[in-house]
C-alpha cells in the first residue's frame, strides 16, 4: 500500500504501435480458453517493456530518478526501431513477446539505468540478466500445462511488427480492482 508521499513506479519504453497492439490482442485471445487455465491479460493501453521495476518509492526519489534517466541520453536522437517477435513464457508464470533490438540499445539502457540508480541512489541492482520483452499475460493457474506450452510453441516465430522508441519513461502504476493505471511522470529537471 502506498503512503501519501510514495508512488509505485517503474522505468519503461512504451509499446503503442496500433498494429502491434492489435496483434497482441489476437494472441491474448488464443490463450483465453478456460480449459487451459486462468490468465490475467495486460491491458492493451498498458503495453510496454520494463527496464527497471522500482516498486514503492518516495516522490522525492522519483524526482531524482527522473532527472537521472533524462540525463543519461541512452536513446539516440530521433529514436530507433525494435521488432516485436517470438511468443515465449517464463516458467509457466508469464506470457510474453520478445523484443528484437539488434543494436542492443534497450539492454544497454537498462544496464546503464541499473548502474546509475545503484551508484547515485543506492537502489539495488537487478539480480537477473535483462531480457527485453512485452508481457501479454500473467498466469494465475494452468489446468492444462501442455495446451499452454503447445500454443506458446506454435507462436515462437510470430512477428508483431516494428515499434519506434523515442524515450525512456518513468511510469507510475496505480493498482485498482479493474487493473493497473499507468501514468507517465515528468518533473522539472
For the secondary structure, the number of strands is 9
Kindly report how far apart the N and C termini lie.
28 Å
**Count of individual helical segments:** 4
Give average pLDDT, whole number: 93
Assign the CATH superfamily. Cyclic phosphodiesterase
Low-pLDDT stretches: none
Strand order of the largest sheet: 2-6-5-4-7
CATH class: Alpha Beta
Shape: globular
Do you know the CATH architecture?
Alpha-Beta Complex
What structural class is derived from the secondary structure elements?
A: alpha+beta
- SSE run: EHEEHEEHEHEEE
CATH fold call: Cyclic Phosphodiesterase, Chain: A
Question: How much helix, percentage-wise, in residues?
Answer: 25-40%
Q: Largest sheet, if any?
A: 5 strands, antiparallel
Overall description:
The chain has helices at 18-30, 59-72, 105-121, 145-154, and strands at residues 6-14, 37-41, 48-58, 80-90, 94-100, 133-142, 159-165, 169-174, 181-185. It has 189 residues and is an alpha+beta fold. It has a single domain, classed as Cyclic Phosphodiesterase, Chain: A (Alpha-Beta Complex), CATH 3.90.1140.10. The mean pLDDT is 93.
Amino acid at each position: 500500500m502506498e503512503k501519501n508521499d510514495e508512488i509505485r513506479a517503474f522505468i519503461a519504453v512504451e509499446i503503442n504501435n496500433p498494429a502491434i497492439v492489435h496483434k497482441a490482442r489476437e494472441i491474448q485471445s488464443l490463450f483465453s480458453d478456460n480449459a487451459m487455465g486462468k490468465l490475467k491479460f495486460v491491458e492493451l493501453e498498458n503495453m510496454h517493456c520494463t527496464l527497471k521495476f522500482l516498486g514503492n518509492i518516495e516522490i522525492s526519489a522519483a524526482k531524482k530518478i527522473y532527472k537521472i534517466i533524462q540525463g543519461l541520453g541512452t536513446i539516440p536522437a530521433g529514436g530507433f526501431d525494435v521488432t516485436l517477435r517470438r511468443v515465449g513464457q517464463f516458467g509457466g508464470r508469464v506470457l510474453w513477446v520478445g523484443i528484437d533490438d539488434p543494436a542492443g540499445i534497450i539492454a544497454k539502457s537498462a544496464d546503464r539505468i541499473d548502474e546509475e540508480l545503484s551508484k547515485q541512489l543506492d537502489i539495488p541492482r537487478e539480480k537477473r540478466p535483462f531480457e527485453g520483452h512485452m508481457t501479454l499475460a500473467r498466469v494465475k493457474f494452468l489446468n492444462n500445462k501442455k495446451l499452454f506450452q503447445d500454443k506458446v510453441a506454435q507462436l515462437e516465430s510470430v512477428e508483431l511488427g516494428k515499434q519506434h522508441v523515442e524515450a525512456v519513461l518513468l511510469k507510475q502504476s496505480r493498482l485498482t480492482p479493474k487493473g493497473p493505471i499507468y501514468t507517465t511522470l515528468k518533473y522539472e529537471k
